[in-house]
Design brief:
homodimer, 394 residues, alpha/beta, 7-stranded mixed beta sheet, 4-stranded antiparallel beta sheet, 12 helices, globular
């Protein structure tokens, strides 16, 4: 017998996207040491944690310092105080879920990867292109087959189901990273109907739902009739409340989601009980504070700040007559590179001509070629200056 | 095509151990509402976080409240400041590892489960019996074959390798949960030699290494010659520094561990980059403080407190002439039930006769029948009172 490591890891393309972005930026900086480069490519937040979150974390740290209030092992699935807060949040936009359908985790990315543990081996996953690379890589690592649904200008970057194609897992991210496109309730209903008819399960990434302001767009897949028998939803405090370095998310698995006698909610509970030990108490108290009246007010102010940045970018592109999606209900702006430039060609143009760094769309899949992603997570000042330079350049 | 969930979950026995302990305790309490029950069965710590850890976490929370010191996404593999501290800690007992061989995580349990991602499908795991149930369950969930190495009184609960048996993964936990037995450097060398000869990989759980005081016992498998080509080590702040509810651990994967061109360190880095997003910054700062001079002094005081509890239990069992292992280099005491009582029979005897709750050994595997686990993580007062009652009873 020879011990073998998982050779499916060989199927993953090394992601050169951000490494290449960093390398080209570094080369430019070396040649132009005095240059003032503005980064509008980052997916990370820049505003600090809200005061309500800070106060809750401080208080929780103090609890951990005293014998009488110290907390050891917590529930694998998250403390009731946080699950109840999340349940109430869903209720605020009309979605009824039970607290024991909510699983608190250290982030949506972990759960989106680990969820494959509860699916049988083999099988096919349908993933939109362009895409957040994690969906593809986790599937390839697990030895699953990946097929793509094209998200293009023709379908407003919102592909509809094709009944000639079948898959057992479908990934939908709305509002989308990288395109910023968001499904309407009606558009999402088509996917739910398709999944219920074909027996597929939808893994719905709602990490950017808090950026939605338009009424007709879906905040949660559980606003859709029938979703409770075909969907799992992943959400995160990362972008909503600036938790990218604090780490907390949650996954909603309806108790009605079953196939051949196996219940997804019970499988995931068992998975988490066996391979996870809950999220830090201090972090869960911080997350709970996000849902207080004070916390909601503060994080809404932060979201408004980022959304005004998105507006600055969108207005600039409008003036230039450049086509884009996103920006209104999303922190991402996905633009068509002008003059039919390639993604990397446009990257070099912006870097050399305006000292602005963005993300070439080609890094998100074949349909990303010719597109470019800008993000609203920078400071106002940088965003305004970047757009002034881009307008001057183009 | 029909979507299927992972039917390997059906292979796992529902763990009734702690549920049954709770149910019997509850029944007794209902019948004896005035009874003063002492729990010596818990594996959770009871002392609060050390002041140095609290100060570091408070300071980190403050950093997160200001724009200039706020931290977003951190490195998947952990901040350098913590990896360097861990590297220095290993150096303090003579083990040389590089910082990039250390991966910070939310706990040893997560990594022990998730590490199977980097191994090929199928395969056989060799696990000692009795055992921490997580090793067995994670393997069954992944569809792997599990075989057992008997840990019995005959081998002092420290099985040696049997060259007639082959497996591609070997689990060793030392000091052991539940038996408290710990391998000598010589005993562990036999396993390392066996693994290198057969090509197996040892997953070494060192979660209780900080309880070791005897010089001849192994603190780390990397004290053993040849371990860097056959072993991965898992460690945790849970018991060392009371992080059971704070969540932090680390895994050491030598860069020399390769099979058929696949490098374990690179595979795990890729796994973590794809399915994990690092540990909370605030928690990592708390963990860093464990390794300062002040932090080490404080956690050593806490460890000494638990070890004195273990001594109280061990002394009581000595007076009673009851055989046991552990207690000296481990927080666990594993005792032979007197008068050839069964594990559950002895559980009922202690509960009814002394109002003391422990853990029946049968819950840890077939070799646990006839044994019983007591833990040193309670308060001094409770531990002393419990042993007084047990001595009176038996």
């Amino acid at each position: 017998m020879t011990m073998k490591f998982n050779s499916h890891f060989n199927d993953i393309n090394e992601s050169y996207l951000f490494a290449e972005v960093a390398a080209r930026t570094q080369t430019f900086r070396a040649a132009n040491p005095e240059s003032d480069i503005i980064k509008l490519g980052i997916g990370d937040v820049t505003l600090p944690l809200a005061p309500a979150v800070i106060a809750a974390m401080r208080s929780a740290v103090s609890e951990m310092s005293e014998k009488d209030t110290f907390r050891g092992y917590g529930p694998y699935e998250g403390y009731d105080f946080l699950r109840e807060s999340i349940r109430g949040y869903y209720g605020s936009f009309g979605v009824k879920i039970a607290a024991d359908e909510i699983f608190v985790s250290d982030g949506a990315k972990s759960d989106l990867g680990n969820i494959l543990d509860i699916f049988s081996e083999g099988g096919t996953s349908l993933i939109t292109d362009p895409v957040y690379p994690v969906y593809v890589d986790t599937n390839l690592m697990a030895g699953r087959k990946v097929i793509f649904a094209d998200a293009t200008e023709q379908n407003d970057f919102l592909p509809a189901p094709d009944y000639k194609v079948t898959a057992d897992i479908i990934y939908i991210c709305s509002p989308n990273n990288p395109t910023g496109a968001a499904y309407t309730l009606k558009g999402l209903q088509e996917w739910v109907d398709y999944a219920n008819k074909t027996g597929a399960v939808i893994l719905y990434d709602a990490a950017y739902e808090s950026f939605i302001s338009d009424g007709g767009l879906a905040r949660s897949i559980f606003q859709i009739e029938g979703a409770e028998t075909c969907a799992i939803e992943f959400c995160s405090f990362s972008k909503t409340a600036g938790f990218t370095g604090t780490r907390c998310g949650y996954t909603v698995i309806p108790k009605a989601l079953e196939r051949e006698g196996l219940n997804a909610n019970k499988l995931w509970l068992r998975r988490q009980a066996t391979k996870f030990n809950g999220v830090s108490y201090v972090v869960q108290r911080g997350a709970e504070a996000v849902f207080t009246a004070e916390g909601q007010k503060q994080i809404r102010e932060n979201l408004a700040y980022y959304k005004r940045n998105a507006r600055v970018i969108a207005d600039g592109l409008d003036e230039l007559g450049i086509k884009y999606t996103g920006g209104k209900n999303s922190p991402y702006i996905w633009l068509r590179c002008p003059d039919n430039a390639g993604s990397w060609q446009f990257f070099d143009l912006l870097l050399n001509g305006a000292q602005v760094v963005g993300t070439p769309g080609a890094g998100f899949g074949k349909n990303g070629e010719g597109y470019f992603r800008l993000t609203a997570f920078g400071s106002r000042e940088d965003t305004v200056r970047a757009m002034q330079r881009i307008k001057k350049l183009l």
